[in-house]
């Protein structure tokens, strides 16, 4: 039996959260988010002087009684947000949890499989957006786009999102730049883009930075969620080993000593700092999630703590 991406008990709690977009939204369909335009929501925006042809129901008789001047009330136009979810399904994501033989006997806390954890986070974010009447599109990628769920809307569509994510197969080399190089792989409308990945990408920070610049040019507000296992952050290995590249299939004989692990840890920390610095300089939000943290805490502590979702 396949584990559900989201425990049923978590669903009602997700409905009380929402995607924390920093922008006012201009969408095409009525939703729950305030746009930069004035329209027909119930949230008051301002007054303006009455003009012939205005809706008489917006006439403010109280202001008229006090000032003798005719004014009508204006309200914010509430529109939908276009939310794009990108999920990395490259081979490096299939690590940790029950599927990772290398995790046994390492002394690290039990952790989820990275891909399953990333799927669950994407499902949670997608459900929040659907519950808020936002429009959600989901794309799977490795070195190319491996699958796409066209835009959906409303809580009734959540089952389609969950099934699509649950059925996603893993494999291939992670290369976000190559995957999104084709115009049809990029978002077609301004909105919010979430990328769930370990960011073990071909080309490293240069390739990632190039791709993020493309997304920014399309008017995207970007959130990166880097999903790593505790075994990757702090490996508990030693001795003469043969390490295999899960994506390329190549191997290397190496004597793992304390100094080698220290250099690895420094290189990983430097890479994460480079991502964080790049994102900070461009207004991109960067979240680090580890798979040993229970999913509920990953959502309500990690994501909410980073300010990318809110009540």
Write up what this structure looks like.
- 31% of the residues lie in helices and 29% in strands.
- The protein is an alpha/beta fold.
- The strands form four sheets. Strands 6-5-4-7-8-11 form a six-stranded mixed sheet, sandwiched between helices. A two-stranded antiparallel sheet has the order 1-12. A two-stranded antiparallel ribbon has the order 2-3.
- A hairpin with a 6-residue loop joins strand 9 (239-244) and strand 10.
- Helix 3 packs antiparallel against helix 4 (158-166) and helix 6 (204-217) packs parallel to helix 8.
- The longest helix has 24 residues, at 258-281.
- It is elongated.
- The model is unreliable at 24-31, 33-39 and 99-109 (pLDDT under 50).
Q: What are its keywords?
A:
two-stranded antiparallel sheet, 311 residues, 29% strand, alpha/beta, six-stranded mixed sheet
CA-to-CA gap between the ends? 33 Å
Radius of gyration: 23 Å
- Written as H for each helix and E for each strand, in order along the chain, the element string is HEEHEEHEEHHEHEHEEHEHE
What fraction, in percent, of the residue positions are helical?
Answer: 25-40%
List how many beta strands DSSP finds: 12
Strand numbers in spatial order across the main sheet = 6-5-4-7-8-11
Topology:
Blueprint: H1 11-14, E1 18-19, E2 30-49, H2 61-67, E3 71-79, E4 82-88, H3 114-131, E5 135-141, E6 145-153, H4 158-166, H5 176-179, E7 191-197, H6 204-217, E8 220-228, H7 230-233, E9 239-244, E10 251-256, H8 258-281, E11 285-290, H9 295-305, E12 309-310
Parallel strand pairs: 4-5, 4-7, 7-8, 8-11
Antiparallel strand pairs: 1-12, 2-3, 5-6, 9-10
Helix pairs in contact: 3-4, 6-8
